[in-house]
Amino acid sequence: MAGPSTTQFVTNKMCPFAQKAWIALEVVNAPYELKEISLYGVNGKPDWFLKMNPAGTVPVLSCNGGIVVVPDSELILNYIADGAVEGGSQLQSPSSEEAVKKWRKDISDRVIPIGKEAVLGGSRDKLFSILQEVDKNVQLPYLCGDQITTADCAAFPFLWRLDQEFGPLTQGDHGCGNLRSW
Q1: Shortest CA distance to 139 belongs to which of 178, 101, 174?
Q2: Which residues of 34-62 are buried (b: 16+ CB within 10 A; e: fewer)?
Q3: Residues contacting residue 1 through CB under 8 Å, at least 6 positions apart
Q4: How far is CA 3 from CA 28, 140, 161, in A?
Q5: Phi and psi dihedrals of 144, rounded to 5?
Q6: Segment 52-89, tens digit of pLDDT
Q7: Which of 147, 116, 146, 133 is nearest to 176 (CA)?
Q8: How far apart are CA 19 and CA 1, in angstroms?
Q9: How far apart are CA 138 and CA 97, in angstroms?
Q10: SS in 3 state form for the chain?
Q11: Fewest CB atoms less than 10 Å from the CB: which of 47, 77, 114, 176?
Q12: What is the pTM of this model?
């Protein structure tokens, strides 16, 4: 019988950046211990967490009993994709590497900032224009084809929130049927 996992995932379940790393951990079926911390509140972040990550951001992945600490969701996705999490499988094949990089860059550099702006009252037209562009790159059944990749993990929490905020992405003139099918 295997002992307890030496991988810890420190998160706040409501954080979409943490959710993308959490999704990836689940996809590769890696054993881990989940520790949830509050992002705000009377007691603030615990001292043990700030020692792990002085920046105080979630998520943080601690592997091999704390020998490896990965303090950023994008870095965690890379670590997981490489099959470096104990007990987990590799997340993507080399044949999809360029498509995955493009998707992750589009989500991080375009969809997230413009989506946040739209949610706060900015231009919805600008957001839907970008979503229509990325919709053309969906290679169903997943974003990059037949296999789930870190692109899917990175995109889901943010695209889901936009879908919840603005209604189904196929509604009206949005024209994002591939994203909706995904």
Answers
A1: 178
A2: eeebeeeeeeebeeebeebbeeebbbbbb
A3: none
A4: 19, 39, 37
A5: -110, 20
A6: 999 999 999 999 989 999 999 999 999 999 889 988 88
A7: 133
A8: 30
A9: 15
A10: CCCCCCCEEEECCCCHHHHHHHHHHHHCCCCCEEEECCCCCCCCCCHHHHHHCCCCCCCEEEEHHHCEEECCHHHHHHHHHCCCCCCCCCCCCHHHHHHHHHHHHHHHHHHHHHHHHHHCCCCHHHHHHHHHHHHCCCECCECCECCCCHHHHHHHHHHHHHHHHHCCCCCCCCCCHHHHHC
A11: 47
A12: 0.92
Q: Which two tokens stand for residue 21?
A: 């790393």
Record the tokens describing residue 181, joined without a space. Answer: 């099918």
Q: Looking at the chain, how many residues does it have?
A: 182
Q: Among all chains, which residue has been given the structure tokens 């059944």?
A: 141
